[in-house]
Design brief:
This protein is mainly beta. Helices cover 15% and strands 41% of the residues. The strands form two sheets. The protein has an eight-stranded mixed sheet. Strands 7-8-9 form a three-stranded antiparallel sheet, with no helix packed on it. A hairpin with a 4-residue loop joins strand 8 and strand 9 (108-110). It is globular and about 35 Å long.
């Protein structure tokens, strides 16, 4: 996979750099206590305050369909968590084996994929 396919540019909504394992939440999903044990980067379409504990314990936050003034971005700034927003080229796919992020080109990044966030530059880097 090329470097360009592994690096996506969005908008930094809360500054900072972080890395961890991808945890993809589909709309309406919540994290169980066992999922909070590892360092993870929470990725979701539209988080609301009901995921407050998930955001607080995450290394960083990726909001696919939101902007810098979305509730999740505001909460990330409140907790000092790096946050990048605005990735219309990604969509969440739900399967029995777990959730994945899929690009327009059909490249899938399942839960557990190592990701790096550079919110100052608006970057989401897979691998």
């Amino acid at each position: 996979m090329t470097e360009a396919a592994r690096t996506l540019r969005g908008l930094g909504a809360s500054p900072g750099v972080a890395h961890g394992r991808l945890k993809v939440l589909a709309r309406g999903d919540t994290l169980g206590a066992t999922a909070l044990a590892d360092t993870y980067v929470l990725c979701t379409e539209d988080p609301t305050f009901c995921e407050l504990a998930s955001i607080q314990s995450a290394a960083a936050l990726v909001l696919l369909q939101a902007g810098a003034t979305a509730e999740g971005a505001i909460v990330a700034r409140t907790f000092g968590k790096p946050c990048v927003v605005g990735f219309p080229e990604l969509r969440v796919i739900v399967k029995a084996t777990g959730n994945s992020l899929v690009t327009r080109d059909g490249i899938a990044f399942p839960d557990g994929t190592e990701v790096h966030i550079d919110a100052g530059r608006g970057l989401l880097i897979f691998g």
